[in-house]
Design brief:
Number of domains: 1
CATH class: Alpha Beta
Strand content: 15-25%
Order of helices and strands: HHEHEHEEHEHHEHEE
CATH topology: Rossmann fold
CATH superfamily: Vaccinia Virus protein VP39
Oligomer: single chain
Distance between the termini: 41 Å
Radius of gyration: 17 Å
Shape: globular
Helix content: 40-55%
Structural class: alpha/beta
């Protein structure tokens, strides 16, 4: 695994964060050191996908990046009759995912598709759809339409698994959650400079919602119930069920 040093050196002019080749090369290390309980979240997603998967259906991972969730799903669902579909807007991310799958072939049928999730995504015959740290990068203008399209393409009894950074609703708690998150990143070897520069690069790219906004988004766009299955300071995982 290549170490993430993307923001190690001071930059005179920071560009907006992107998911191109430089990010794809170090993305797995970035996730491990930047997302609390990342491996546990993956395990939980696999478990709950197993609870809702339906024979002959598709499992979509939207914003699949380097394929970690697809590989975890394959291990959890290998006895099921279903198809995995990974979708990402970044060719560079999918190139890394393809290399992983070549080295460690999956037992389930799997396809990888390049598509911008803001541009007319079509979901078909899904029983489980996953948005793992993806929706926060979709511009708010397009989020209602995306969730509605996902719900429309999901079978009755299926689910959406959504993991997001969230804003604490009281501003005091939001500041405390962020403080503890940055302390987590420092414990994992990131410097104050790296944390500050990445925060600036993400400012106009990653736009989190409050917990109540995420719940409302799900319930008004095709889902009958939702609940939180994971919470750590400013990270939250939701499961939403379609009747």
């Amino acid at each position: 695994m290549i170490k993430d040093e993307h923001f190690k050196d001071p930059k005179a002019c920071l560009e907006d964060f992107n998911f191109g080749a430089d990010t794809a090369r170090v993305f797995d290390d970035m996730l491990d050191r930047s997302v609390p309980f990342y491996s546990e979240i993956q395990r939980m997603i696999g478990e709950m996908a197993g609870d809702f998967v339906q024979a002959g259906s598709r499992i979509y991972d939207l914003g699949c990046s380097t394929g970690n969730t697809l590989i975890a799903l394959d291990q959890c669902l290998k006895e099921e009759r279903c198809e995995l579909v990974g979708v990402d807007a970044s060719e560079e991310m999918l190139a890394v995912a393809r290399q992983k799958i070549l080295k460690r072939p999956l037992q389930l049928p799997c396809s990888l598709e390049v598509q911008n999730l803001e541009q007319g995504l079509v979901i078909d015959n899904a029983s489980v759809v996953i948005l793992n740290l993806t929706l926060q990068f979709i511009r708010p203008l397009y989020r209602d339409d995306l969730i509605s399209r996902i719900a429309e393409g999901t079978r009755p009894g299926g689910c959406l698994l959504l993991v997001e950074k969230v804003l604490g609703e009281p501003s005091l708690l939001n500041r405390l959650f962020i403080k503890h998150f940055y302390a987590f990143k420092k414990r994992n070897g990131y410097t104050d400079m790296e944390i500050a520069q990445k925060r600036e690069a993400l400012e106009n790219v990653l736009i989190p919602y409050q917990d109540s906004e995420n719940r409302s988004l799900l319930l008004k766009n095709g889902y009958s119930a939702c609940d939180v299955f994971f919470r750590w300071y400013n990270f939250s995982g939701y499961i939403a069920i379609k009747d």
